[in-house]
Specification:
The structure is a single chain. By secondary structure, the chain is of the alpha+beta class. The strands form two sheets. The chain has a five-stranded antiparallel β-sheet. A two-stranded antiparallel sheet has the order 1-6. A hairpin with a 2-residue loop joins strand 3 and strand 4. Helix 4 packs across helix 6. 36% of the residues are buried. The protein has one domain. The chain is globular. The chain is 32% helix and 15% strand.
């Protein structure tokens, strides 16, 4: 049996979908990756604050709108990078630079359409975290009995270099959700169960 520095993460985080490679990718965003990995080895249930702007950016959306964006990304688009929930919001991990570009693209969609009509009025504020910002990422092992407010991974990082959507793809998903919102019945759909996302489709 081979022995590597990251091997303890393989079994420990398998139930949450966060692999040793995924943990290494997350840790690489910090100033001291080895210290982060050592902390997770001792406390896999500990959330960690990581900086944005180099390895990834994060776009934070209200839970319901973010969930609909995620559904669009997987049902009609290229899929997503890692995605987590934190304090009632959806955290979509995106390519570095997305936080800077997305607000201007949203502004163009709102004010620059040929018909002169804003097309993103139904899009709630999206919080874009890029260079100079930091976010709290969920623990690599979820709570035994999670509550709706718990931080957890919906699409867990599982490789060292995951594909991450850029600003254009996030804009595409947000605009389509906003356009669909005017056609949605005021009555919620009967099945509100969480979806299972096929991560094998991810680029």
């Amino acid at each position: 049996m081979s022995s590597t520095q990251d091997e303890p993460f393989r079994d420990r985080f398998g139930s949450s979908g966060v692999t040793s490679d995924g943990a290494a990718w997350l840790a690489s965003a910090g100033t001291y990756p080895r210290s982060t990995l050592a902390l997770w080895e001792e406390r896999p249930d500990a959330p960690v604050v990581l900086p944005c702007g180099s390895v990834f950016d994060v776009v934070s959306a209200p839970a319901v709108f973010g969930r609909r964006m995620l559904d669009r990304l997987w049902d009609e688009g290229p899929g997503s990078g890692p995605v987590a929930t934190h304090r009632g919001r959806m955290l979509l991990f995106t390519a570095a630079g997305t936080a800077q570009r997305l607000p201007s693209l949203l502004g163009w969609e709102e004010w620059g359409s040929p018909a002169g009509e804003g097309r993103t009025g139904a899009i709630p504020p999206l919080l874009c975290h890029g260079r100079g910002d930091a976010v709290t990422v969920p623990a690599l092992v979820g709570a035994a009995s999670p509550t709706p407010c718990d931080s957890r991974w919906l699409v867990a990082p599982d490789i060292r270099h995951p594909w991450l959507p850029g600003a254009e793809i996030l804009l595409w998903a947000a605009v389509r959700v906003a356009r669909a919102a005017v056609r949605i019945s005021i009555f919620p759909p009967p099945d509100q169960d969480a979806k299972v996302y096929d991560v094998s489709r991810r680029r």
